[in-house]
Amino acid sequence: MRSTLGHLLNTNPVAKLLEILLVYAPALVAITLLKPFAGDNLIRQQAVIWVANVVMLILVWLGLRLRGENCSHFGLTFKRLSWKDGFQMFGLSLVVLALAVIGFVFGSILMANITGIPEGADMSHYAYLENNLFMLILTLCGVYLVSSFGEEVVYRGFLINRISEFGLPPKSATVVAVLASAVIFGLAHYSWGPMGIVQTGFMGLALGVCYVKLKKRLWILILAHAYMDTMLMLQLYFA
To answer: Taking Cα atoms as reference points, which of 86, 84, 89 lies closest to residue 224?
Structure first.
């Protein structure tokens, strides 16, 4: 049974499409069903999002297992680095951070020119962080695992690779995969409003291009994403 499913996932375009849908659909269902139980509790609301992301990570891992692949297929390796490689990774992560921020700012400028007055993102669900050091540290731990790590695995590693494997010519497949991952990444931040969708969409586009250009060195993107999440959380803490 396992080998049959793995063969289908490797060869059948319909099975590949279903795999992508099955990774994201349960997360959407989980958010829809669990959010009413969270009520107005900001911490519970955030926990629902984290649970949905963990579900996606588990489903991505199952897909790898069925195919007979491992995390290195997405560029996620766990080998020890030399000091030289570590400094190189750190430097590249700063470059990726700068490009992602440029993408985010470009999205802001684009929306400002379209709408006239930028619509601020609704960040009220992070209000519990304000001047609360314990919750800041706890939230950062969760964010690093679920957002910095999880989102890069799901939206860059998984999505770009799987869309690229649909049988299109290599260059066309890469372009389509990077654009699609950026759009889906932006839509995943719908709670931030139209401005947030466009901002994160262009940020996702920058990250996707970096993922391809860096030959799937996913840890570099994870580090860059972690820097952005840290800046956001600190901003909310000092709000």
So the answer is: 89
